[in-house]
Design brief:
By secondary structure, the chain is of the alpha+beta class. Helices cover about 35% and strands about 15% of the residues.
């Protein structure tokens, strides 16, 4: 498949299979068919599935516990610890925990009518990391007049990666 054809596929969010000499066949792209920009990247979908399933599995112990403030604090602390681990591992973006995620489970998320229905509602917000789909290498060359002090400096070109 030629680059032009790959670009057309990419524009239509189709991940192609590319044979790389010496490296084998690779999936070229990490996109979904979602029209919602928040769900375009596969890793974001997977992250949210991981969080949902992990919290659901972990929270099974709260079944039949009194749906009150002490339970809410325990579940918030537990979910925050889990999300903090994800943030530390680089799955969430943000310079601080507060920038990367939040967990809310309180009187507002669990009004009396929801508690009467036997529901415990936990609100979780996360800032997922977008994938590095492309590597762009920029090569710059510069020249300058050399002085006697610069004679020991050899480089006249630099390579930067973005």
């Amino acid at each position: 498949m030629r680059k032009r054809e790959r670009d057309v596929c990419f524009d239509h969010r189709i991940n192609t299979l590319i044979a790389f000499p010496g490296r084998g066949v690779r999936v070229w792209g990490a996109r979904t068919l979602s029209s919602d920009p928040a769900w375009v990247h596969i890793n974001v979908r997977r992250l949210f599935i991981l969080i949902r399933k992990s919290v659901e599995r972990y929270a099974q112990w709260v079944v039949f516990e009194p749906n009150e403030e002490s339970l809410w604090k325990k579940i918030v602390r537990s979910v925050e610890n889990f999300l903090d681990d994800l943030w530390t591992q680089g799955a969430l973006v943000g310079g601080s925990r507060e920038d990367a995620f939040y967990v809310k489970c309180d009187e507002e998320t669990n009004p009396p009518e929801s508690r009467d229905a036997g529901q415990l509602v936990i609100e979780i917000g996360v800032a997922p990391v977008k994938p590095a789909e492309f590597i762009v290498v920029r090569i710059h060359q510069w020249t300058r007049e050399r002085t006697d002090a610069d004679k020991e400096e050899a480089p006249t070109a630099a390579i930067t990666a973005a």
